[in-house]
Amino acid sequence: KMCDYRFASRQGWTRNFVKSLKRLMDMPKSFANLVSMSSGVSSQRITRIFSKMACAQGVFHCDVQYCKRTYCRDEYYVQKYSHLLPSGAGNLVRDPDHDKLFRDWELAQR
Questions:
Q1: Helix (H, G, I), strand (E, B) or coil at 108
Q2: In a domain, 54, yes or no
Q3: CA-wise closest residue to 71 among 82, 60, 59
Q4: Separation between Cα atoms, residue 53 and residue 22, nearest integer Å
Q5: Which domain of life is it from (predicted)?
Q6: What confidence category does residue 101 fall into, taking pLDDT thresholds of 50, 70 and 90?
Q7: What range does the domain containing 13 cover?
Q8: d(CA 104, CA 102)
Q9: Contact yes or no for 32/73 (Cβ under 8 A)
């Protein structure tokens, strides 16, 4: 349910992410500029793809808990990435790429 809410529906995280991931992996130089061992991830688009992949693997909730118990408590990472935190509660975050799906999903929930 966490993934369905975040990505508007099950199809929001089961469709197209493999194509996006493949496109990234097919461009190794671009991928190296977007994800680095020293500086981390440089684009929220990349983290969305990783989030969808975690949803597909059934480990999204584990990733969230791991992050909360490790990185969120490490001052180095708090200083480095706190400016990227959402303004509201993390469980209410929705992927902005799925605006139409959100409207349809909300109507279906009523």
A1: helix
A2: yes
A3: 82
A4: 12
A5: Eukaryota
A6: low
A7: 2-59
A8: 5
A9: no
What amino acid is encoded at 15 in this protein? R
32-74: pLDDT as tens digits: 667 777 777 777 777 888 888 899 889 999 998 998 899 889 9
Domain count, the chain: 1
Note whether residue 55 is domain-resident. Answer: yes
Q: Is residue 106 part of a domain?
A: no
Asked if residues 31 and 37 have their Cβ atoms less than 8 Å apart, the reply is: no
Quick check: 101 and 8 in contact, CB under 8 A? yes
Residues paired with residue 36 on neighbouring β-strands, in sequence order: 40
Which amino acid makes up residue 103?
R
Which residues fall within 8 angstroms of residue 49, CB to CB, at 6 or more apart? 17, 20, 21, 24
| Number of alpha carbons in the 13 Å side-chain half-sphere of residue 9 | 14
CA 80 to chain centroid, in Å, comes to: 18
User: Can you read off the two tokens belonging to residue 80?
Assistant: 């480095």
Cα distance between residue 95 and residue 12, in whole Å: 9
Domain presence at residue 82: no
